[in-house]
Amino acid sequence: MTPDRAFAGFLQAHPEYRETSHVDALRAAEYGRLDASGQTYLDYTGGSLYAASQIHQHAELLAGQVFSNPHSANRTSAATTELVERTRRRVLEYFNAPPGEYVAIFTANATGALKHVGESYAFAPGGRLLLAADNHNSVNGIRELAAARGATFGYAPLTTPQLRLDLPALDALLAAADRTRPNLFAYPAQSNFSGVKHPLDLVERARARGWDVLLDAAAFVPSSRLDLAAVRPDFVSLSFYKMFGYPTGVGCLLVRTAALARLARPWFGGGTVRLSTVHGHAHVLAPGEAGFEDGTLNYLDIPAVETGLDHLEAIGVEAIGTRVRCLTAWLLEQLLALRHPGGRPMVRIYGPADTIGRGGTITLNLYDPEGHLLDYRRVEELASAQGISLRTGCFCNPGAAEWAEGIGDEEVRAALALGDGVTLGRFLDVLQRRGGKSIGAIRVSFGLASNFADAQRFVGFLEGFRGQTRLAIGGVTFDIDSCRVVRDGT
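RESULT FIELD:
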């Protein structure tokens, strides 16, 4: 089928895509480097792409004025403070935070935001931390801080094969809380593994049962609207580069003011105190968000956040969501239709096979004509050689990966027996020897500059595996060690 006929069929099946045609003009004007360099970018869950105008506007701002460390009252410092505070107000406005009900704390990234909650939350004996099995490792890590202070922690299970939260089981876990103790429930608005959108009404359901709620919104907000006037989590973590690509190194923790009063920082540092004294062995923490913004903020990049939010508003997050949903639906249909010459399916999809209650992240694995799992690392290598950027691994979400493959305690113990030498690649080898399972997969994701040609090119790439055996595609030349690529000979 020719590209034009394929696109015509796509539009017939998804006519609402036409309503997003302004994004095609935007892609040509703002993201022309993609097509000019022959790149197909399919890793928006890993990080969005910046528009050329974002960089130009920020460069003009920096080149035209003088800014300095905001911890002062001089003229350049005051100018910086005003820009930072204006951006803070813009962030709260973008998320429709009711006046006075939320504060915005700037952090280095979403992980930094989550660490704030973990370090400062009032975990204590008798209290609980409840985590979704589908959580990023930066959320999982909070369990160490909770356990160190005597709180218990547990996981809300997922259903298979949908990889949605098991709501009856979750309700039972929520009902078990001791309301006289601090209890924290943490879950993602959208899975960075399966693309599942977990219900936002869980926020109120949990709070009604005596829980504070931490909502990881990092994968959700790039193509969906989070309205804090309608959904009121106690804590929200996000990274701006996942929303609009630039700047990196700036994240945010949105906190309900009532919940902020319940946080107690375990230390103090520059910029976080009103007063500290050496002789008196005492300090007075700064009020509000200032007590959580450690050291000197990334004050030259924070103003670029306002530019990015304006850019996202100009496109329309609803239009982005529509576009992403249409492309996701088409790609899912194509993936399920891929067959080897003998009729065996080529692709296994993890999570929902339709767009009901899911975002634009699709995680999958490929199999050869004999049903053998193809090494996802080799697939990534071959995709990269063709100018296709996707992501592989477990995406810092081991729970969803383990649940998807039915990996239990026995397999995990076998991997941990490797000691300090264990890596994701070696864990994969263990699982392959013990039953052909995988701890990792291939992830593609759509975002604000995606178009039909991107999805079509990926399908064409996968068609190249039709009839190819595991031996024929060759071995991988790199390993993944602690989420970092390690190549042979380096």
